[in-house]
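Our consortium's second objective concerns turning raw sequence data into structural hypotheses that experimental partners can test. To show how far this objective has progressed, the report includes one record in full. It was chosen at random from the queue rather than selected for favorable results. The single chain below, 241 residues long, was entered without modification.
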Amino acid sequence: MDSLKRLNAGVIACRKCPRLVAHRERVAREKVRRYRDEEYWGKPIPGFGDPKARLLIVGLAPAAHGGNRTGRIFTGDRSGDFLYAALYRAAFANQPWSGHRDDGLALRDCFITAAVWCAPPGNKPTPTELTTCRPYLVEEMRLLRNVRIVVVLGRIALDAFLKAWGDAGRTAPARRPAFGHGALAKLPGDVWLLASYHPSQQNTQTGRLTSAMFQRIFARVRRMLAGPRANRRRESKRRKV
């Protein structure tokens, strides 16, 4: 078993946070009406994607009736549909939707993880729960050695990532990056940090985060990964047209 698989096995078996364990298992037993005939996952959700990815996405936590039901992060809920549609348009995913963990979805050059690995009550993990989950994120960061760009979805994800960055022994940036949609910061070690609003229903249904805004985040990532030479070639072609 390779290192990432060992980490994922440890995540799935974790029972360190009594409040999270009780909540995720209660939700899996009681379910909701529309999913009453499904068997819920009801365990922590490991990261998902390409182990050689240059793009790392850090979210908040699995949804109670999304990842906690399906067993894969951002899968089976509207936030996931919003995310994977954007990743598909930017060529980081092979399909624009996610229904269950065996639906054929594959990520290309992209890995998705979270600040907390169990569905929290009210989507609000406590500071202690965030601290308890952090070593898993730290180890994941150590194993994903090709990451060049990190997209954080929301302020809590930004804070969790920066703390994990420090715990992983990385040099802290001279100035702490501030959160704001589209805010970009260079981290020591030639890694870029790009912030986005989280694709929660609260943000997408109110128009705080639109599909166009979200797509621009990942289009920007794609341009950055292509490098300045490829960007110059595209600009030259546009001028000729």
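The partners drew two points from this record. The helical segments are 3-12, 18-30, 67-70, 78-89, 127-143, 155-167, 201-204, 211-240. The chain has one domain: 3-240. Both points have been shared with the crystallography group to help prioritize constructs.
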